Structures are given as structure tokens and as C-alpha cells.
Amino acid sequence: MRAAVSRHRRRFGMTAALRATSWAIPAGGAVWLQLVIPGSPSAASNVAVIVVALLFLTLIGRVALEAVKRGRRGAGLWPLAGGLLLWAAGSAVLNSSAEAASFPAPGEWLFLAAYVGFSAFLVLDRAGASSNPGGGWLDGV
What we know:
Number of domains: 2
Largest sheet: none
Helix content: over 70%
Strand content: under 5%
Oligomer: single chain
């Protein structure tokens, strides 16, 4: 009994910490951009990339932790986490690309693959929500 309570508190503590961190990262990044590097555009770009990467990591961590907490009911959250991971990878590839903008840009395929994960989340999450499991296909489209 004591181990179960300890595990529950640890998970709740991690959830609360990730929730607070996901709000603190953009706020801290904005302060960092305004106070530390007011005149350097290249340093500001580097700070923005770091802030976005940290934000994506915390969001993916929050979704994955919630999927673990829900067990079988949270199966739809894993495609959402995968979609967020692909979106973050696409953002990183697009921002680190030094070549001129062309179509399709190097990271755009990762963005398109992320939509598959987002759609799978909508369909899987909807399937357990009502008595009509086929009604969620339109949400994914």
C-alpha cells in the first residue's frame, strides 16, 4: 500500500513539475531574450531555438507521462507524443537548414508525418469516448 501511494505522489509530482516547467520555459525565454541579448540577432535566434526545443521536450514528456498514467485508456496518447516528436524534429531540421528556402523544404516531410500521429490520436481517443466508435473517423480527417 505504501509503495502505491509513493508511486502516485511521485507521478503527481512529476506531472506538476512538467506542467510548471512548460509554462516557465516560454516566460523565461522571453525574459532571456529581452534582458540578456537585446542587440544580437544571431544570439536571439539561438535562444529561440533552445527555448522551442526545451518546450517540445516538456510537452512530449507531459503527454508520455499521461499515457503511462492512463495505461490502456491512454493508448491514443502515444501517437500524439509521436506526432509532437516528429513536429519538433521538423522544426529543428527547418531551423538548422542553411540552404535557401525551396519547396519542399528539408523538414516539411516530418511535419506531414506528424499529421498522421495527430489524426491517429483523434481517432483513437474518440473511439473510447462514445458508444459509436466509428463516429471518430471524421475527427481525424
